[in-house]
Amino acid sequence: MADLPEITVDTDILASCRVIITELQTAYIKLVAGQARIRVRFDRRWTEYHPASATQLKELINKLFDTCPDTTGLLDLRPKRGRPFFLRIVD
């Protein structure tokens, strides 16, 4: 596999959780498209995400989405929960 370009999201220098979520979602889309690998910094800890670990990055985005007070208009990647769908086949 060719070396992918790297996107760095440094949460310490971003202004708000809304900005962090937007940056991470943009990076996530590039990650699942195979266009980049992602490095995310929280405090002093760096975590690197590759296309194979996209689910883990999505979980991080969803946790931030749940805790952010203002997510109006942001892309919601959380799984939708609703009534189960049943298919009834009648002869």
Describe the 3D structure.
The protein has 91 residues and is α+β, with helices and mostly antiparallel strands. The protein has a domain at 6-67: Head-to-tail joining protein W, gpW, CATH 3.30.1580. 33% of the residues lie in helices and 18% in strands. It is built from two helices and three strands, in the order E-H-E-E-H. The chain has helices spanning 17-32, 54-67, and strands at 6-10, 37-42, 45-49. It has a three-stranded mixed beta sheet, with helices on one face. Helix 1 (17-32) links the parallel strand 1 and strand 2. Helix 1 packs antiparallel against helix 2 (54-67). The longest helix is centred in the N-terminal third of the chain and has 16 residues, at 17-32. The termini are far apart.
What characteristic shape results from the CA principal axes?
globular
Q: Reading side by side through the largest sheet, how are the strands ordered?
A: 1-2-3
Strand content: 15-25%
The helix content is 25-40%
The termini sit apart by: 51 Å
The CATH C-level class name of the domain at 6-67 = Alpha Beta
Q: Using the CA coordinates, give the radius of gyration.
A: 16 Å
String of helices and strands: EHEEH
- Named CATH topology of the domain at 6-67: Head-to-tail joining protein W, gpW
Give the integer mean of the pLDDT values: 79
Structural class: alpha+beta
Task: Count up the helices.
Answer: 2
* Quantity of strands, as a count: 3
The main β sheet shows up as: 3 strands, mixed
Q: List the uncertain runs.
A: none
CATH architecture of the domain at 6-67: 2-Layer Sandwich
